[in-house]
Amino acid sequence: MAKEYCRDRFFPTTHIANLPKQFSFNKGKKTLMIDYATTDQLHIYKKMINDAAIKGDNVGIDEYHEDYVANFLFDMSEIFQATDPSTGHIEAVMFIQFCFYQRALDSRSATVHIFRSSGIDNVVYAELTSLMGDFAQALDIGYTQICVHVAFSMTDLYLELRKQGFVTVALFPEWVELAGIGVDDSALMVKQLRTSNRKLKSKEEILKATNDKFTLDGVQSTYFSSGCVPVPILPITATTKQGFKFTFRNARIEEDEMMYKMLSDAANEGDGYAIDELPTLNFFRMAYLAGSAAVIMEDVATKAVAGAMIFLKSLQGRRATSSIVGTSVILKKEYRSSGLNNLGRAIGIIVLRSMGFKKEFSITFSTNYAAIKATKRFQLQTIGIFPNGAYQRGRGWVDLVYALGSLEDEVGMLSKLGFEHLASSNKKQAVGSKL
Fold first, then answer.
1. pTM, full prediction
2. H helices within 227-290, ranges in order?
3. What gap in Å lies between CA 199 and CA 270, rounded to an integer?
Protein backbone atom coordinates (compact mmCIF):
# COMPACT_ATOMS: atom_id res chain seq x y z
CA MET A 1 0.00 0.00 0.00
CA ALA A 2 1.27 3.47 -0.87
CA LYS A 3 2.36 5.57 2.07
CA GLU A 4 0.23 8.61 2.86
CA TYR A 5 2.09 11.89 2.41
CA CYS A 6 2.64 13.34 5.90
CA ARG A 7 3.91 16.81 6.58
CA ASP A 8 5.34 18.25 9.78
CA ARG A 9 1.98 19.48 11.03
CA PHE A 10 1.88 22.75 12.95
CA PHE A 11 -1.25 21.80 14.90
CA PRO A 12 -2.47 18.18 15.14
CA THR A 13 -5.30 17.38 12.73
CA THR A 14 -8.14 14.90 12.78
CA HIS A 15 -7.73 12.18 10.17
CA ILE A 16 -10.67 12.32 7.77
CA ALA A 17 -12.51 9.02 8.00
CA ASN A 18 -13.95 6.89 5.18
CA LEU A 19 -11.31 7.79 2.62
CA PRO A 20 -10.88 6.76 -0.13
CA LYS A 21 -14.44 7.59 -1.12
CA GLN A 22 -16.26 8.27 -4.38
CA PHE A 23 -17.90 11.65 -4.89
CA SER A 24 -20.16 12.80 -7.72
CA PHE A 25 -19.77 16.22 -9.33
CA ASN A 26 -21.63 18.37 -11.86
CA LYS A 27 -24.99 16.69 -11.26
CA GLY A 28 -23.55 13.20 -11.58
CA LYS A 29 -21.66 13.81 -14.81
CA LYS A 30 -18.29 13.31 -13.13
CA THR A 31 -17.26 10.76 -10.51
CA LEU A 32 -13.94 10.98 -8.68
CA MET A 33 -12.27 8.88 -6.01
CA ILE A 34 -10.93 11.18 -3.29
CA ASP A 35 -8.12 10.07 -0.99
CA TYR A 36 -5.12 11.39 0.85
CA ALA A 37 -2.08 12.08 -1.30
CA THR A 38 0.70 9.50 -1.22
CA THR A 39 4.47 9.81 -1.26
CA ASP A 40 4.91 7.66 -4.36
CA GLN A 41 2.89 10.13 -6.44
CA LEU A 42 4.82 13.29 -5.51
CA HIS A 43 6.39 13.50 -8.96
CA ILE A 44 2.92 13.50 -10.53
CA TYR A 45 1.65 16.25 -8.22
CA LYS A 46 4.64 18.44 -9.01
CA LYS A 47 4.18 17.84 -12.73
CA MET A 48 0.54 18.89 -12.45
CA ILE A 49 1.64 22.14 -10.78
CA ASN A 50 4.15 22.81 -13.56
CA ASP A 51 1.62 21.93 -16.27
CA ALA A 52 -0.93 24.33 -14.76
CA ALA A 53 1.67 27.12 -14.84
CA ILE A 54 2.49 26.37 -18.48
CA LYS A 55 -1.21 26.46 -19.42
CA GLY A 56 -1.98 29.53 -17.31
CA ASP A 57 -4.70 27.58 -15.51
CA ASN A 58 -5.14 29.98 -12.57
CA VAL A 59 -1.46 29.43 -11.80
CA GLY A 60 1.21 32.07 -12.36
CA ILE A 61 4.23 31.27 -14.47
CA ASP A 62 6.50 31.61 -11.42
CA GLU A 63 3.93 31.44 -8.62
CA TYR A 64 4.79 27.96 -7.36
CA HIS A 65 8.54 28.14 -7.61
CA GLU A 66 10.65 25.33 -6.19
CA ASP A 67 11.37 26.95 -2.82
CA TYR A 68 7.70 27.78 -2.19
CA VAL A 69 6.51 24.31 -3.24
CA ALA A 70 9.02 22.55 -0.98
CA ASN A 71 8.85 24.75 2.11
CA PHE A 72 5.31 26.11 2.12
CA LEU A 73 2.92 24.26 -0.17
CA PHE A 74 3.81 20.64 0.61
CA ASP A 75 5.12 21.21 4.13
CA MET A 76 2.22 23.36 5.33
CA SER A 77 -0.77 21.66 3.70
CA GLU A 78 -3.08 18.68 4.03
CA ILE A 79 -2.95 17.09 0.57
CA PHE A 80 -5.56 15.05 -1.27
CA GLN A 81 -5.84 13.53 -4.71
CA ALA A 82 -8.79 12.92 -7.05
CA THR A 83 -8.58 9.94 -9.39
CA ASP A 84 -10.78 8.51 -12.13
CA PRO A 85 -12.24 5.37 -10.46
CA SER A 86 -12.23 3.42 -13.74
CA THR A 87 -8.67 4.17 -14.86
CA GLY A 88 -6.89 5.19 -11.65
CA HIS A 89 -5.58 8.28 -13.44
CA ILE A 90 -4.96 11.24 -11.14
CA GLU A 91 -7.25 14.04 -12.30
CA ALA A 92 -6.50 16.63 -9.62
CA VAL A 93 -4.43 17.29 -6.53
CA MET A 94 -5.84 19.51 -3.77
CA PHE A 95 -4.05 21.34 -0.95
CA ILE A 96 -5.58 22.77 2.24
CA GLN A 97 -2.99 25.23 3.49
CA PHE A 98 -2.62 27.65 6.38
CA CYS A 99 -3.72 31.05 5.02
CA PHE A 100 -0.98 33.68 4.65
CA TYR A 101 -3.49 36.50 4.29
CA GLN A 102 -4.29 36.59 8.00
CA ARG A 103 -2.45 37.65 11.12
CA ALA A 104 -3.01 34.67 13.39
CA LEU A 105 -1.13 31.46 14.06
CA ASP A 106 -4.32 29.88 15.36
CA SER A 107 -5.90 30.14 11.95
CA ARG A 108 -9.60 30.41 11.26
CA SER A 109 -8.77 30.52 7.54
CA ALA A 110 -7.40 27.94 5.13
CA THR A 111 -6.34 28.51 1.53
CA VAL A 112 -7.32 25.87 -1.04
CA HIS A 113 -5.03 25.21 -4.02
CA ILE A 114 -6.20 22.92 -6.82
CA PHE A 115 -4.22 21.67 -9.81
CA ARG A 116 -6.19 19.75 -12.43
CA SER A 117 -5.97 17.74 -15.60
CA SER A 118 -7.97 18.56 -18.72
CA GLY A 119 -10.72 16.22 -17.51
CA ILE A 120 -11.75 18.63 -14.73
CA ASP A 121 -13.92 21.49 -15.99
CA ASN A 122 -14.70 24.71 -14.11
CA VAL A 123 -17.88 23.29 -12.57
CA VAL A 124 -16.03 20.32 -11.08
CA TYR A 125 -13.11 22.56 -10.06
CA ALA A 126 -15.47 24.81 -8.08
CA GLU A 127 -17.27 21.85 -6.50
CA LEU A 128 -13.93 20.26 -5.57
CA THR A 129 -12.95 23.54 -3.91
CA SER A 130 -16.17 23.50 -1.92
CA LEU A 131 -15.56 19.86 -0.94
CA MET A 132 -12.15 20.90 0.38
CA GLY A 133 -14.06 23.30 2.61
CA ASP A 134 -15.93 20.33 4.08
CA PHE A 135 -12.60 18.56 4.57
CA ALA A 136 -11.04 21.67 6.15
CA GLN A 137 -13.87 21.73 8.68
CA ALA A 138 -13.48 18.00 9.37
CA LEU A 139 -9.74 18.41 10.07
CA ASP A 140 -10.80 20.02 13.36
CA ILE A 141 -8.02 22.61 13.39
CA GLY A 142 -10.69 25.23 13.85
CA TYR A 143 -11.10 26.52 10.31
CA THR A 144 -14.26 28.56 9.89
CA GLN A 145 -13.63 29.76 6.34
CA ILE A 146 -11.67 28.83 3.23
CA CYS A 147 -10.02 31.12 0.70
CA VAL A 148 -9.11 30.78 -2.95
CA HIS A 149 -7.29 33.10 -5.33
CA VAL A 150 -8.69 33.47 -8.84
CA ALA A 151 -7.01 35.32 -11.69
CA PHE A 152 -9.54 37.92 -12.76
CA SER A 153 -9.34 36.91 -16.42
CA MET A 154 -10.76 33.48 -15.50
CA THR A 155 -14.35 34.71 -15.53
CA ASP A 156 -16.05 31.33 -15.92
CA LEU A 157 -14.20 29.80 -12.97
CA TYR A 158 -14.90 32.92 -10.91
CA LEU A 159 -18.65 32.61 -11.61
CA GLU A 160 -18.70 28.90 -10.73
CA LEU A 161 -17.02 29.64 -7.39
CA ARG A 162 -19.66 32.31 -6.77
CA LYS A 163 -22.32 29.60 -7.20
CA GLN A 164 -20.58 27.59 -4.48
CA GLY A 165 -20.92 30.44 -1.99
CA PHE A 166 -17.56 32.15 -2.41
CA VAL A 167 -17.56 35.94 -2.22
CA THR A 168 -14.81 38.37 -3.19
CA VAL A 169 -13.20 40.15 -0.23
CA ALA A 170 -10.27 41.76 -2.04
CA LEU A 171 -8.98 42.50 -5.52
CA PHE A 172 -5.19 42.63 -5.89
CA PRO A 173 -4.00 44.58 -8.94
CA GLU A 174 -1.21 43.11 -11.09
CA TRP A 175 -0.82 40.22 -8.67
CA VAL A 176 -0.21 37.21 -10.94
CA GLU A 177 1.37 36.60 -14.34
CA LEU A 178 -0.39 33.98 -16.47
CA ALA A 179 1.02 32.26 -19.52
CA GLY A 180 -0.75 33.57 -22.61
CA ILE A 181 -2.39 36.41 -20.66
CA GLY A 182 0.37 38.37 -19.00
CA VAL A 183 0.12 40.24 -15.71
CA ASP A 184 -3.39 39.93 -14.29
CA ASP A 185 -5.36 41.05 -11.26
CA SER A 186 -6.29 38.44 -8.66
CA ALA A 187 -9.50 38.12 -6.66
CA LEU A 188 -9.33 36.72 -3.14
CA MET A 189 -12.57 34.82 -2.51
CA VAL A 190 -13.80 33.49 0.84
CA LYS A 191 -16.48 30.97 1.78
CA GLN A 192 -17.77 30.74 5.33
CA LEU A 193 -17.90 27.20 6.75
CA ARG A 194 -19.48 27.97 10.10
CA THR A 195 -20.40 31.06 12.02
CA SER A 196 -19.47 30.14 15.59
CA ASN A 197 -17.16 32.67 17.24
CA ARG A 198 -14.76 29.99 18.39
CA LYS A 199 -12.23 30.56 21.12
CA LEU A 200 -8.55 30.97 20.47
CA LYS A 201 -6.39 27.95 21.12
CA SER A 202 -4.77 27.95 24.54
CA LYS A 203 -1.43 29.63 25.09
CA GLU A 204 0.03 26.22 25.92
CA GLU A 205 -1.10 24.74 22.58
CA ILE A 206 0.37 27.64 20.60
CA LEU A 207 3.64 27.57 22.53
CA LYS A 208 4.02 23.83 22.05
CA ALA A 209 3.41 24.16 18.30
CA THR A 210 5.89 27.00 17.86
CA ASN A 211 8.54 25.48 20.14
CA ASP A 212 8.35 22.19 18.23
CA LYS A 213 8.60 23.90 14.84
CA PHE A 214 10.94 26.83 15.53
CA THR A 215 13.81 25.22 17.40
CA LEU A 216 17.09 26.68 18.59
CA ASP A 217 18.93 24.50 16.06
CA GLY A 218 16.89 26.06 13.28
CA VAL A 219 17.61 29.54 14.58
CA GLN A 220 21.33 28.76 14.78
CA SER A 221 21.45 27.61 11.14
CA THR A 222 19.42 30.52 9.74
CA TYR A 223 19.18 33.68 11.82
CA PHE A 224 22.40 33.51 13.86
CA SER A 225 24.43 32.44 10.85
CA SER A 226 23.53 35.52 8.81
CA GLY A 227 21.31 37.89 10.82
CA CYS A 228 19.13 40.42 9.06
CA VAL A 229 19.74 41.75 5.58
CA PRO A 230 21.88 44.92 5.94
CA VAL A 231 20.72 48.10 4.18
CA PRO A 232 23.83 49.67 2.58
CA ILE A 233 22.57 53.28 2.66
CA LEU A 234 22.23 53.24 6.46
CA PRO A 235 22.88 54.88 8.87
CA ILE A 236 20.94 58.06 8.12
CA THR A 237 20.32 60.87 10.60
CA ALA A 238 17.35 63.18 10.06
CA THR A 239 15.12 65.61 11.97
CA THR A 240 11.36 65.57 12.47
CA LYS A 241 9.14 68.59 11.83
CA GLN A 242 9.02 69.05 15.61
CA GLY A 243 12.81 69.37 15.74
CA PHE A 244 13.71 65.97 17.19
CA LYS A 245 16.73 64.26 15.64
CA PHE A 246 16.90 60.51 15.06
CA THR A 247 19.40 58.10 13.57
CA PHE A 248 18.16 55.21 11.46
CA ARG A 249 20.62 52.32 11.46
CA ASN A 250 20.76 48.61 10.77
CA ALA A 251 19.70 46.50 13.73
CA ARG A 252 22.43 44.45 15.35
CA ILE A 253 21.94 40.72 15.72
CA GLU A 254 21.92 40.95 19.52
CA GLU A 255 19.03 43.46 19.43
CA ASP A 256 16.54 40.80 18.38
CA GLU A 257 15.26 40.26 21.91
CA MET A 258 14.72 44.00 22.43
CA MET A 259 12.69 44.27 19.20
CA TYR A 260 10.70 41.18 20.12
CA LYS A 261 9.83 42.64 23.51
CA MET A 262 8.58 45.89 21.95
CA LEU A 263 6.31 44.02 19.55
CA SER A 264 5.08 41.39 22.01
CA ASP A 265 4.32 44.07 24.60
CA ALA A 266 2.17 45.82 21.98
CA ALA A 267 0.38 42.52 21.27
CA ASN A 268 -0.27 41.93 24.98
CA GLU A 269 -1.77 45.41 25.22
CA GLY A 270 -3.94 44.84 22.13
CA ASP A 271 -2.07 47.66 20.40
CA GLY A 272 -1.96 46.76 16.70
CA TYR A 273 -0.77 43.15 16.97
CA ALA A 274 -2.62 39.85 17.33
CA ILE A 275 -2.45 38.01 20.63
CA ASP A 276 -0.79 34.96 19.01
CA GLU A 277 1.11 36.76 16.26
CA LEU A 278 4.48 36.66 18.08
CA PRO A 279 4.36 33.67 20.42
CA THR A 280 8.09 33.14 20.98
CA LEU A 281 11.42 34.82 20.40
CA ASN A 282 12.61 32.00 18.12
CA PHE A 283 9.46 32.34 16.01
CA PHE A 284 10.12 36.08 15.71
CA ARG A 285 13.72 35.43 14.67
CA MET A 286 12.72 32.93 11.97
CA ALA A 287 9.48 34.43 10.65
CA TYR A 288 10.27 38.14 10.92
CA LEU A 289 14.02 38.74 11.04
CA ALA A 290 15.75 36.01 9.03
CA GLY A 291 16.14 37.25 5.47
CA SER A 292 14.54 40.61 6.28
CA ALA A 293 15.87 44.11 6.89
CA ALA A 294 15.50 45.54 10.38
CA VAL A 295 16.05 49.23 11.15
CA ILE A 296 16.51 50.73 14.60
CA MET A 297 15.29 54.31 15.21
CA GLU A 298 17.57 55.93 17.79
CA ASP A 299 17.10 59.24 19.62
CA VAL A 300 20.25 61.24 18.92
CA ALA A 301 19.94 63.32 22.09
CA THR A 302 19.57 60.43 24.54
CA LYS A 303 20.91 57.47 22.52
CA ALA A 304 17.72 55.65 23.51
CA VAL A 305 15.98 53.29 21.07
CA ALA A 306 12.74 54.97 19.97
CA GLY A 307 11.38 52.20 17.79
CA ALA A 308 12.06 49.73 15.02
CA MET A 309 11.00 48.97 11.45
CA ILE A 310 11.12 45.51 9.87
CA PHE A 311 10.87 45.12 6.10
CA LEU A 312 10.11 41.61 4.87
CA LYS A 313 9.33 40.32 1.41
CA SER A 314 5.61 39.63 1.24
CA LEU A 315 4.47 36.00 1.08
CA GLN A 316 1.12 37.11 -0.29
CA GLY A 317 2.16 37.98 -3.84
CA ARG A 318 1.51 35.38 -6.55
CA ARG A 319 4.73 36.18 -8.42
CA ALA A 320 8.16 34.97 -7.33
CA THR A 321 9.74 37.97 -9.03
CA SER A 322 7.32 40.49 -7.52
CA SER A 323 8.86 43.32 -5.53
CA ILE A 324 6.20 43.50 -2.82
CA VAL A 325 7.17 44.32 0.75
CA GLY A 326 5.40 44.13 4.07
CA THR A 327 6.35 46.54 6.82
CA SER A 328 6.11 46.10 10.57
CA VAL A 329 6.65 49.27 12.64
CA ILE A 330 6.69 49.81 16.38
CA LEU A 331 7.25 53.12 18.18
CA LYS A 332 7.66 53.48 21.92
CA LYS A 333 4.76 55.43 23.38
CA GLU A 334 6.91 58.31 24.55
CA TYR A 335 7.94 59.06 20.95
CA ARG A 336 4.54 58.95 19.27
CA SER A 337 4.08 62.72 19.44
CA SER A 338 7.62 63.51 18.29
CA GLY A 339 6.87 63.36 14.57
CA LEU A 340 8.88 60.15 14.28
CA ASN A 341 5.96 58.35 12.62
CA ASN A 342 6.10 60.59 9.53
CA LEU A 343 9.90 60.79 9.47
CA GLY A 344 10.15 57.02 9.85
CA ARG A 345 7.78 56.62 6.93
CA ALA A 346 9.96 58.93 4.81
CA ILE A 347 13.16 57.06 5.66
CA GLY A 348 11.31 53.79 5.11
CA ILE A 349 10.43 54.85 1.55
CA ILE A 350 14.08 55.66 0.85
CA VAL A 351 15.21 52.33 2.32
CA LEU A 352 12.62 50.28 0.41
CA ARG A 353 13.46 52.00 -2.87
CA SER A 354 17.15 51.33 -2.30
CA MET A 355 16.33 47.63 -1.79
CA GLY A 356 14.43 47.41 -5.07
CA PHE A 357 10.90 47.09 -3.73
CA LYS A 358 8.18 48.61 -5.91
CA LYS A 359 4.96 47.94 -3.97
CA GLU A 360 4.02 47.91 -0.32
CA PHE A 361 1.31 45.66 1.10
CA SER A 362 -0.29 46.55 4.42
CA ILE A 363 -2.54 44.44 6.68
CA THR A 364 -4.19 46.52 9.42
CA PHE A 365 -6.73 45.65 12.10
CA SER A 366 -10.17 47.03 11.25
CA THR A 367 -10.33 48.26 14.86
CA ASN A 368 -7.14 50.33 14.51
CA TYR A 369 -8.63 53.51 13.04
CA ALA A 370 -5.46 55.55 13.58
CA ALA A 371 -3.39 53.03 11.60
CA ILE A 372 -5.97 52.93 8.80
CA LYS A 373 -5.84 56.72 8.57
CA ALA A 374 -2.04 56.52 8.49
CA THR A 375 -2.05 54.08 5.56
CA LYS A 376 -4.18 56.53 3.61
CA ARG A 377 -1.90 59.40 4.58
CA PHE A 378 1.01 57.27 3.45
CA GLN A 379 -0.73 56.87 0.06
CA LEU A 380 -1.75 53.22 0.28
CA GLN A 381 -5.14 52.40 -1.22
CA THR A 382 -7.61 50.04 0.47
CA ILE A 383 -8.20 46.98 -1.74
CA GLY A 384 -10.25 44.73 0.53
CA ILE A 385 -11.39 43.61 3.98
CA PHE A 386 -10.64 40.07 5.17
CA PRO A 387 -13.05 38.65 7.79
CA ASN A 388 -11.86 37.23 11.11
CA GLY A 389 -8.19 37.49 10.27
CA ALA A 390 -6.73 38.10 13.74
CA TYR A 391 -7.49 37.77 17.42
CA GLN A 392 -6.97 41.05 19.27
CA ARG A 393 -6.70 41.23 23.05
CA GLY A 394 -9.79 42.86 24.51
CA ARG A 395 -11.76 42.66 21.24
CA GLY A 396 -11.71 39.05 20.06
CA TRP A 397 -11.67 38.16 16.37
CA VAL A 398 -11.37 41.21 14.13
CA ASP A 399 -11.32 41.85 10.39
CA LEU A 400 -8.23 42.94 8.49
CA VAL A 401 -7.98 45.89 6.11
CA TYR A 402 -5.76 45.31 3.08
CA ALA A 403 -4.03 48.27 1.46
CA LEU A 404 -1.53 48.46 -1.38
CA GLY A 405 0.68 51.29 -2.54
CA SER A 406 3.31 51.96 -5.19
CA LEU A 407 6.82 52.97 -4.18
CA GLU A 408 7.74 54.18 -7.67
CA ASP A 409 7.30 57.94 -7.11
CA GLU A 410 9.82 58.47 -4.33
CA VAL A 411 10.00 62.25 -4.74
CA GLY A 412 6.23 62.67 -4.84
CA MET A 413 5.67 60.48 -1.77
CA LEU A 414 8.32 62.29 0.25
CA SER A 415 6.93 65.65 -0.87
CA LYS A 416 3.47 64.82 0.48
CA LEU A 417 5.06 63.91 3.82
CA GLY A 418 6.96 67.20 3.86
CA PHE A 419 10.37 65.58 3.47
CA GLU A 420 11.05 66.15 -0.21
CA HIS A 421 14.55 67.38 0.63
CA LEU A 422 15.47 63.85 1.68
CA ALA A 423 14.92 62.48 -1.82
CA SER A 424 17.34 64.72 -3.69
CA SER A 425 20.00 64.92 -0.99
CA ASN A 426 19.93 61.25 -0.07
CA LYS A 427 20.99 60.23 -3.57
CA LYS A 428 24.15 62.27 -3.10
CA GLN A 429 24.98 61.10 0.41
CA ALA A 430 27.39 58.37 1.31
CA VAL A 431 26.83 55.81 4.04
CA GLY A 432 26.54 57.56 7.40
CA SER A 433 24.85 60.61 5.86
CA LYS A 434 23.08 63.31 7.85
CA LEU A 435 19.90 64.69 6.31
1. 0.89
2. 256-268, 281-284
3. 17
